From TrEMBL:
<keyword id="KW-0698">rRNA processing</keyword>
<dbReference type="Pfam" id="PF20998">
    <property type="entry name" value="Nol11_C"/>
</dbReference>
<dbReference type="InterPro" id="IPR012584">
    <property type="entry name" value="NOL11_N"/>
</dbReference>
<keyword id="KW-0804">Transcription</keyword>
<keyword id="KW-0539">Nucleus</keyword>
<keyword id="KW-0010">Activator</keyword>
<dbReference type="GO" id="GO:0030490">
    <property type="term" value="P:maturation of SSU-rRNA"/>
</dbReference>
<keyword id="KW-0805">Transcription regulation</keyword>
<dbReference type="InterPro" id="IPR048897">
    <property type="entry name" value="Nol11_C"/>
</dbReference>
<feature type="domain" description="Nucleolar protein 11 C-terminal">
    <location>
        <begin position="377"/>
        <end position="689"/>
    </location>
</feature>
<feature type="domain" description="Nucleolar protein 11 N-terminal">
    <location>
        <begin position="2"/>
        <end position="303"/>
    </location>
</feature>
<dbReference type="GO" id="GO:0005730">
    <property type="term" value="C:nucleolus"/>
</dbReference>
<dbReference type="GO" id="GO:0003723">
    <property type="term" value="F:RNA binding"/>
</dbReference>
<dbReference type="InterPro" id="IPR036322">
    <property type="entry name" value="WD40_repeat_dom_sf"/>
</dbReference>
<dbReference type="Pfam" id="PF08168">
    <property type="entry name" value="NOL11_N"/>
</dbReference>
<protein>
    <submittedName>
        <fullName>NOL11 protein</fullName>
    </submittedName>
</protein>
<dbReference type="InterPro" id="IPR042859">
    <property type="entry name" value="NOL11"/>
</dbReference>
């Protein structure tokens, strides 16, 4: 769906990712020696996953399954080419011989005979659609340089075969298709750097056994002497296609790029270089691109609006005369990118002025403040004075009902961050803070923001990001924790940090020491537990380790609370925590111990304040920290007193709750008796607890 991706590796594994969190939710692999031979899909009807390994072995499992060797298995009678999953319908299984079955029919008799329509042909591509309520399957095959198109209609059980018109000295490399008004539009990317269009009507009455499909040139992938050697492509709308491939100019080394082309005006809208390389595959779903870049799955948001000649020519002019295109891909982050193809239905004086602004940057400053566009602001951010940029940013924040606000912010923040990287004197901290406070942002929308804040040691911004971003990678969370622990309390006193999470339980005026509340602790008594450890400590050590006083200043405590509030996966955080210096690990554990004691003083084990850490968060982080540094903690002399104090406190808690458990039955009985008896206005009752 729009937030989940199932990625199949060439080999043994399939991984389910949550896009907004940038985290894997599950990973499954087949045994050594086995190989997944077609992409894993999700059955929308049952919410189960379907895979085929070694061509014939079908596996079906759910989210809760871990070992694929123990899930449902069926061995089929023929080799599977691909499984296509459709919303509101059974998955379709396409066999290498051209036979097709729905999954439910196939599972009734897995060893049923599958017909072979294309014994000498090899399937190169396939896709499935729903036209009304009817599933339709289309696939392309190749034999001796000839290409054939098959269309399978399931309701009528009809298979149409067509032959693709031959192209001299070039072959199709990739296909894509869509259905509209009972017509299949098939697009073919050829090796002569062109995209051709083929129209196939679904209503066929001809009795011809094999019709020839003629094609028309849709787009030539060349501009200004550069040629794109495409590997895969996707249709964005009726006027735009995205092509992944290598852009080659005469005398220059080829560069792998993601490009967007306007098919209506035959222009290259924009391109983005991908220096780490890709697998050559491009997917498009829900206004997002998906492709592998290096060793990561990259997700790029795009937005297409109605194309116009003014916009197309303006963008082309920019790409020839300036290193900044109107879409400004040079300043956007790799993880999330907004492509805003501007809409102008006709060339009006307004659109002419916009084209002038894009080509003559000196005129940008003369635009009236109320007409500043996002494109002009991006040009300002690149190299204008800080005062000009700040004025533009103020206008942006003042537009409360701005359309596509997330897309606009997705353009502006990466541009600001790139300016911060290239210009050390430029850092619009107030704007960034206001933006995070006013908008529902995420780490994935501005992935380099926290890296710049870490470099600038901007504690306030980091605190806000940790509290508000739901998808911060564990590596960044660890970097924030390490920075907070390493900076002195004296330095932090001079910084702007929100103290709302600690102000109710740490006395800021008492030299950074905790307020001792006169509340009976839940079963903990220092005197009763004093003899529970053979090790002898000085009075100073005991005061330092017993959790009575806060071991850090209020600013550092508030920052550490923000770290505790941040979401994480134990699997990915633990390796980073092992790199935390021993002294910082001890200090952090001491603070967690302090919080644990404070929580235990309260009847409801809840700390007061806004965004204060919960008892579960505190306990989880304590366990995680001890797992990461257990050996170091045991061997470190200054940690022995802390571990002993923790041990005593936890044991006291266990004893207390054990005693409560003993009288739980009696307390329940008292409650039952109270409900049964209708007491008068005044009565005295003596109940014996046995």
């Amino acid at each position: 769906d729009s937030d989940h991706v199932l990625l199949t590796d060439r080999g043994r594994t399939a991984t389910l990712f949550k896009v907004s969190d940038q985290k894997p939710l599950g990973c499954w692999s087949v045994k050594h020696g086995q190989m997944i031979t077609c992409p894993v899909v999700c059955n929308f009807e049952t919410h189960e996953y379907i895979a085929v390994h070694d061509d014939k072995v079908l596996r079906i499992w759910g989210d809760e399954d871990v070992n694929l060797d123990k899930v449902f298995k069926a061995t089929l009678s023929a080799d599977v080419y691909r499984i296509h999953s459709l919303p509101h319908g059974e998955p379709l299984v396409l066999f290498k011989g051209g036979g097709v079955r729905t999954l439910d029919v196939l599972l009734e008799a897995p060893q049923q005979e599958i017909e072979n329509f294309i014994s000498d042909e090899v399937i190169k591509w396939s896709e499935a659609f729903l036209e009304g309520q009817e599933p339709i399957l289309i696939f392309a095959t190749e034999k001796d340089g000839d290409y054939f198109i098959y269309i399978q209609k399931f309701k009528l059980n009809i298979l149409h075969k067509y032959k693709l018109e031959q192209q001299e000295s070039s072959n199709p490399l990739s296909f894509t298709a869509y259905i509209k008004n009972q017509i299949i539009t098939l697009l073919c990317l050829y090796s002569d750097d062109s995209i051709y269009k083929v129209l196939i009507p679904l209503q066929q009455h001809s009795e011809e056994e094999e019709q020839i499909l003629s094609k028309s040139l849709l787009l030539k992938l060349s501009v200004s002497g550069s040629v794109l050697k495409g590997t895969s492509f996707a249709v964005l709308d009726k006027d735009h296609v995205a092509v992944l491939g290598s852009l080659t100019a005469f005398g220059e080394e080829s560069k792998e790029c993601l490009t967007i082309w306007n098919t209506k005006f035959q222009t290259l809208q924009t391109s983005k270089e991908l220096p780490l390389g890709t697998s050559g595959q491009l997917w498009c779903y829900g206004e997002k691109f998906f492709f592998t870049h290096g060793k990561v799955l990259t997700v790029i948001i795009y937005k297409c609006e109605t194309s116009s000649l003014a916009a197309a020519v303006g963008k082309l002019k920019d790409s020839q005369t300036s290193d900044v295109s109107f879409l400004n891909w040079n300043t956007l982050s790799e993880e999330e990118l907004v492509v805003s193809l501007q809409s102008q239905q006709s060339v009006t004086p307004k659109s002419e002025s916009k084209m002038t602004l894009r080509s003559r940057r000196s005129s940008v400053a003369k635009v009236p403040p109320d007409t500043l566009t996002v494109g002009q602001l991006l040009l300002d951010i690149k190299d204008s004075a800080s005062a000009v940029v700040e004025e533009g940013l103020k206008q942006l924040l003042s537009k409360a009902q701005m359309p596509d606000v997330q897309a606009t912010i997705g353009c502006v923040i990466p541009a600001l961050i790139n300016r911060c990287k290239t210009d050390p004197m430029f850092y619009p901290q107030n704007f960034l803070v206001q933006l995070i406070q006013k908008r529902e942002l995420s780490y994935s929308l501005c992935p380099d923001l926290m890296a710049v804040a870490l470099e600038k040691k901007d504690m306030h911004l980091l605190q806000l990001c940790l509290q508000r971003f739901p998808d911060i990678p564990e590596e960044i969370t660890y970097a924030c924790l390490k920075l907070f622990l390493s900076i002195s309390d004296d330095y932090l006193e001079r910084t702007d940090v929100n103290l709302d999470s600690i102000i109710c339980y740490i006395d800021i005026e008492s030299n950074n020491k905790g307020v001792k509340n006169e509340i009976v602790e839940n079963g903990f008594n220092t005197e009763l537990e004093e003899d529970s450890c053979d090790t002898t400590f000085t009075k100073e050590t005991l005061l330092k380790n017993d959790g009575e006083f806060c071991p850090v200043g209020p600013q550092k405590a508030a920052l550490l609370n923000a770290v505790l509030h941040s979401a994480y996966s134990e699997t990915f955080l633990l390796p980073h925590l092992k790199d935390l210096p021993a002294q910082q690990a001890v200090l952090f554990l001491r603070y967690l111990h302090y919080l644990y004691v404070k929580c235990s003083e309260k009847i409801n084990t809840t700390l007061p304040g806004v965004l204060s850490p919960t008892i579960n968060q505190i306990m989880d982080w304590m366990c995680l920290l001890l797992d990461a540094h257990f050996t170091v903690m045991v061997m470190l002399p200054e940690a022995k007193g802390l571990l002993s104090s923790l041990h005593k406190f936890v044991r006291a808690q266990v004893r207390f709750y054990s005693e409560l458990n003993k009288i739980e039955g009696s307390l329940q009985e008292l409650q039952r008796l109270k409900l049964q008896k209708d007491s008068q206005a005044y009565s005295i009752e003596v109940l014996e607890l046995i």
